[in-house]
User: Which sequence fits this backbone?
């Protein structure tokens, strides 16, 4: 959209806000309605042919949907919630967007500014509340500044390291009538790497014998992913992805070595420590990806080239031998176009890492009628080539992350901050964003009952995600840590659950229960054929606490000290 200003006419602040969203190219807004933004809702009615207003059931769910929209499109997802309790419920989604580097704009209705500092009904100072969680927090009390501040909010959300912006909107401002022009997006060119950055990187690569590319970050475009893939394949480099970034490189490639994060293959972790040049592109090398900050020495220079759009992230924990500040997609295209200097001597190293990945995904012989690993690998063969996966936090997520391959054309969304209750609303947001693509959401029994009621939003907006609930009757991750630290002293981690298949049937959806290996694929095919939102409950043994250990294994290890 052109940045040229439109002719100014008298409009209410509520209409100006709605028009500001249109001017910024917003197509969807996810909301739980509140009396603090009635005028904005009325403004959105006037632009209902331009912006789809998605009515959600819980503010946390609305922001998770908006965050998923931002992850998938690279444009800021928009959520709108009411003051006080609504903003507090929404805060978890802001935290997800911040740690995941996802562009997001959260609009919060605010009290009348004439009542400020009286501890009035639902009063919160949002600058103080959200300042540790968001890139920027502002409040609009003057309707004439709406186009300016909303344009600024979208600029901040997408610039540098993308992230969330919170905009509070007072009641009076929404009612005021002013004459002011709309402001569209600024045509900002992406930051390219410095002139000597890529030649220096290639010099370091020429001297390496055991290089490894680690991909992470957000706002990758299709062209950017294709460019970095072309460079990796042309140089026969092994590649890993950061925590819950499995959609950045196809898992079935001969160059894919696996993911670094919670539940990573110990072999990959060991090989990463052996590498003599880690090219970290987009990843912050945070706690999960760096295995608790143990992959590299802290406070001394390591053989790391770190590429990131925010210079403040380069060397925050690990000191790189080279830091490159650049837009990830611009960097990828520039790197792809750089010619190889000489034949690459590390093909055996690349094959070694790939063999480790292939060994890791081989399904063990788990006890009992359900081998979830084999069931997932059979399911993988049935999924469309453009499937969108979402996962929640929890041990259950390590099963699809380990045993399934995210392929080219597929997307994978997960909260790097470990937020339970993310997967179901994220899956619904993904399905609303791309209604023609299959969405498969993995969630544990604990996480499903945090936000599973958002399945009502899927019915309301006529999309049909398939939710796979992995039910082991407990908060599995906490039980795992409990057994490692206090073996046999089970406290506070057991759950009593409903029949999840009947839960979805009560909404008019499709429900299935899986208790054996060969039941998952037929259940999925029936769910897909139904054309309805669906829940497949997979009943797991609580004894199989992770995909690598049982409760008995953990207790035996604890007994040995």
Assistant:
């Amino acid at each position: 959209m052109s940045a040229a200003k439109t002719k100014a006419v008298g409009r209410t602040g509520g209409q100006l806000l709605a028009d500001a969203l249109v001017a910024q190219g917003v197509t969807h807004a996810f909301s739980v309605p509140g009396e603090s933004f009635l005028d904005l809702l009325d403004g959105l009615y006037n632009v209902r042919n331009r912006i789809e207003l998605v009515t959600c059931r819980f503010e946390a769910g609305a922001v998770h949907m908006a965050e998923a929209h931002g992850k998938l499109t690279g444009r800021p997802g928009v959520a709108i919630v009411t003051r006080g309790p609504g903003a507090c419920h929404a805060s978890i989604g802001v935290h997800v967007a911040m740690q995941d580097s996802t562009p997001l704009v959260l609009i919060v209705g605010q009290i009348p500014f004439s009542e400020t500092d009286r501890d009035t009904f639902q009063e919160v100072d949002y600058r103080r509340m959200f300042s540790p969680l968001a890139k920027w927090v502002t409040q609009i009390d003057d309707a004439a500044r709406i186009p300016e501040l909303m344009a600024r909010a979208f600029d901040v959300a997408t610039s540098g390291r993308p992230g969330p912006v919170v905009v509070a909107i007072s009641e009076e401002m929404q009612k005021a009538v002013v004459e002011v022009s709309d402001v569209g997006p600024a045509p900002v060119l992406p930051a390219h790497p410095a002139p000597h950055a890529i030649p220096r990187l290639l010099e370091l690569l020429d001297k390496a014998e055991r290089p490894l590319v680690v991909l992470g970050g957000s706002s990758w475009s299709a062209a950017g992913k294709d460019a970095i893939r072309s460079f990796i394949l042309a140089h026969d480099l092994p590649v890993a992805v950061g925590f819950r970034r499995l959609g950045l490189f196809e898992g079935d490639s001969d160059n894919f070595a696996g993911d670094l994060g919670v539940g990573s293959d110990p072999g990959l972790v060991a090989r990463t420590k052996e590498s003599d040049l880690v090219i970290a592109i987009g990843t912050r090398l945070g706690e999960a990806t760096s295995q608790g900050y143990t992959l590299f020495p802290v406070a001394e220079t390591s053989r790391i080239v770190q590429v990131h759009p925010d210079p403040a992230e380069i060397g925050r924990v690990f000191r790189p031998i080279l830091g490159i500040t650049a837009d990830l997609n611009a960097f990828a295209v520039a790197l792809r176009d750089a010619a190889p200097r000489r034949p690459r001597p590390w093909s055996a190293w690349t094959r070694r890492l790939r063999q480790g990945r292939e060994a890791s995904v081989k399904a063990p012989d788990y006890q009992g009628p359900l081998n979830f690993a084999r069931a997932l690998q059979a399911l993988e063969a049935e999924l469309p080539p453009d499937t969108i996966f979402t996962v929640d936090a929890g041990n259950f997520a390590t099963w699809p992350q380990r045993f399934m391959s995210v392929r080219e054309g597929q997307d994978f969304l997960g909260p790097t901050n470990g937020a339970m209750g993310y997967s179901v609303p994220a899956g619904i947001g993904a399905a609303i964003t791309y209604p023609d693509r299959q969405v498969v959401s993995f969630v544990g029994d604990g996480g499903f009952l945090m936000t599973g009621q958002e399945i009502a939003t899927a019915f309301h907006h006529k999309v049909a995600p398939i939710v796979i609930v992995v039910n082991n009757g407990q908060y599995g991750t906490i039980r795992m840590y409990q057994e490692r630290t206090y073996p046999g002293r089970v406290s506070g981690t057991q759950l009593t659950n409903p029949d999840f298949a009947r839960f979805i049937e009560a909404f008019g959806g499709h429900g299935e229960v899986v208790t054996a290996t060969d039941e998952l694929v037929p259940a999925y095919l029936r769910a897909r054929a139904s054309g309805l939102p669906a829940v497949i409950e997979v009943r797991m043994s609580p004894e199989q606490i992770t995909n690598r250990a049982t409760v008995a294994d953990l207790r035996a290890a604890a007994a040995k000290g």
In short: The mean pLDDT is 94.
